[in-house]
Specification:
alpha/beta; four-stranded mixed sheet; two-stranded antiparallel sheet; 10 helices
């Protein structure tokens, strides 16, 4: 991506070097929390339920402590990149909301190391990037990008941008009321049906990431040869089927909550090609046709 000279967002809460100092009580995530955590199935091993239960439990108090923290040059480069991508999403979604006669209120990007306390509970770096609608913040430990490269073979600036844009997509869903409506419906569903509703939410967030990419390139002519392939390749290795197969050697379709690889690629590509929010309805079609 061509980002030289591009502005950086000021909607940043940099908590790197801060230790949460929390203790968490035992308890389940709850159906609605499946969406809040965002891209939890990007993990490459272990039981996602263990991560969910650990990362979105309720805090029992405790206060953060700050240590002297000196980021590496690579990490600081990723932090600047993240601020630039967030700024781009602000530009794109401000314009798109204006078209609808609405005002876009941007989220805050929280950078952290190891562990963090969010409005949705406590989380660790192993959770992966996530969006919390309770405080309208995106959370990311920048080491996740290294894990993408090492564990999934997914690399490149537009692949990393897709990660951020997907989580911003959840924020867009929250502002438009889609996320809250889905949470309400999921709380009354069986686990299998709630997972299907979760898939619809996640595929729409992929579509919205694509819409951002479409308008980012239109506004700034930023995409270079190979950029689109980076994002689409990333979508192919974060499907539930791919990750389940990688982690346990077999797939459990009823446990899918983000969508198959082919679905995630298809909706991302649709957003990239269309750029039109009207084409992103993942709730009306039958589940089998997504």
């Amino acid at each position: 991506m061509r980002l030289n000279g591009r502005r950086q967002s000021s909607n940043i809460d940099d908590r790197r070097g801060q230790r949460s100092g929390f203790s968490a009580k035992a308890g389940g995530l709850g159906i609605g929390g499946l969406i809040i955590v965002g891209i939890i199935t990007w993990l490459t091993g272990g039981n996602p339920l263990d991560v969910l239960n650990g990362s979105v439990s309720s805090a029992l108090g405790g206060s953060g402590t700050t240590e002297e923290y000196v980021p590496t040059a690579q990490e600081e480069e990723l932090a600047q990149f993240s601020r630039q991508i967030l700024a781009s999403t602000e530009d794109v979604w401000t314009e798109e909301f204006n078209k609808m006669g609405l005002t876009y209120e941007p989220p805050t990007l929280v950078l952290f190391n190891d562990a963090v306390q969010s409005g949705c509970g406590n989380a660790t770096a192993s959770t992966g990037p996530f969006y919390c609608s309770a405080d309208e913040c995106l959370y990311i430990d920048l080491s996740f990008f290294s894990q993408m490269r090492q564990n999934l073979g997914s690399d490149g600036d537009f692949a990393y941008a897709y990660v951020i844009a997907h989580e911003v997509g959840h924020h867009v869903q929250h502002l438009l009321g889609t996320l809250d409506k889905a949470h309400s419906q999921m709380s009354r569903m069986s686990e299998t049906d709630a997972n299907k509703e979760s898939v619809r939410i996640e595929l729409q967030a992929d579509f919205l990431a694509g819409v951002w990419g479409h308008h980012e390139n239109r506004m700034f002519n930023s995409l270079e040869e190979g950029d689109l392939e980076e994002a689409i390749s990333t979508a192919s290795v974060i499907g539930d089927d791919y990750l389940q197969k990688k982690a346990q050697g077999y797939v459990v379709p009823d446990a899918f909550n983000h969508g198959r690889s082919d679905q995630r690629m298809r909706w991302l590509k649709k957003g990239l090609q269309s750029g039109d929010l009207a084409d992103g309805d993942t709730f009306t079609p039958s589940y089998s046709s997504l």
